[in-house]
Amino acid sequence: MQSKYFVIYQEIANKIDKGDYKAKEYLPSEHELCTIYGTARETIRKALNLLAENGYIQKIRGKGSLVIDRNKFDLPVSGLVSFREITDKMDEKPLTVVHECNLEKVTPKIAQQLKVSSPELVWEVKRTRQFSGEHVILDKDYFLEKYVPKLTEDIASRSIYDYLENTLGLSISFAKKEITVIESTEEDKELLDLEGFQHIVVIKNYVYLDDATLFQYTESRHRPDKFRFVDFARRNR
């Protein structure tokens, strides 16, 4: 016989899948669920923990259990493609909001990432990507000015890579990527609609020209419930 909490978990999960409990809405309170299912709070908490573990809800302190939108966008891990090239294949077209596009003296932190000395100038571009009215990606790009002498907000709002390759004639060759999960910063909380999530997925890109020159460093910061990172791997024998 299945445990009571597992039966409750299955019933609530089924209701979420059917849309009885909709994404971005809260489940009934623990007290209400105790009444609905005629059981103790400990049993309800076990069911809710299982729902959270399986990606159905996000527990938010002081508010309750928020139903997560389980529709995710696939983002490739391998390959070097622009955001516009990825989203051209999606049914839903996101909106890009440019928050900053400035030419600045490189900070020690970014100088270390780009492997340059501090007097260098870099373009700092900060953009959020909006899906279904929610800001769920924060992209922070840094381009060395000696390779990208000019950049505007208008270019940043469309496709920077299209400009780099087709206007400036740069030959972008390859990138090294690092993927981590970290606690969200105050900037993340300010610019993204985190819906109570305390952690974000960060993809760091180190992008090189065809002569192996590192010219761009990017941090792409993602709300974890909205994306699925996919790759194709073949076994070599």
UniProtKB/TrEMBL annotation:
<feature type="domain" description="HTH gntR-type">
    <location>
        <begin position="2"/>
        <end position="70"/>
    </location>
</feature>
<keyword id="KW-0805">Transcription regulation</keyword>
<protein>
    <recommendedName>
        <fullName>Trehalose operon repressor</fullName>
    </recommendedName>
</protein>
<keyword id="KW-0678">Repressor</keyword>
<dbReference type="InterPro" id="IPR011663">
    <property type="entry name" value="UTRA"/>
</dbReference>
<dbReference type="GO" id="GO:0003700">
    <property type="term" value="F:DNA-binding transcription factor activity"/>
</dbReference>
<keyword id="KW-0804">Transcription</keyword>
<keyword id="KW-0238">DNA-binding</keyword>
<dbReference type="Pfam" id="PF07702">
    <property type="entry name" value="UTRA"/>
</dbReference>
<dbReference type="InterPro" id="IPR036390">
    <property type="entry name" value="WH_DNA-bd_sf"/>
</dbReference>
<dbReference type="InterPro" id="IPR028978">
    <property type="entry name" value="Chorismate_lyase_/UTRA_dom_sf"/>
</dbReference>
<dbReference type="InterPro" id="IPR050679">
    <property type="entry name" value="Bact_HTH_transcr_reg"/>
</dbReference>
<dbReference type="GO" id="GO:0045892">
    <property type="term" value="P:negative regulation of DNA-templated transcription"/>
</dbReference>
<dbReference type="Pfam" id="PF00392">
    <property type="entry name" value="GntR"/>
</dbReference>
<dbReference type="InterPro" id="IPR036388">
    <property type="entry name" value="WH-like_DNA-bd_sf"/>
</dbReference>
<dbReference type="GO" id="GO:0003677">
    <property type="term" value="F:DNA binding"/>
</dbReference>
<dbReference type="InterPro" id="IPR012770">
    <property type="entry name" value="TreR"/>
</dbReference>
<dbReference type="InterPro" id="IPR000524">
    <property type="entry name" value="Tscrpt_reg_HTH_GntR"/>
</dbReference>
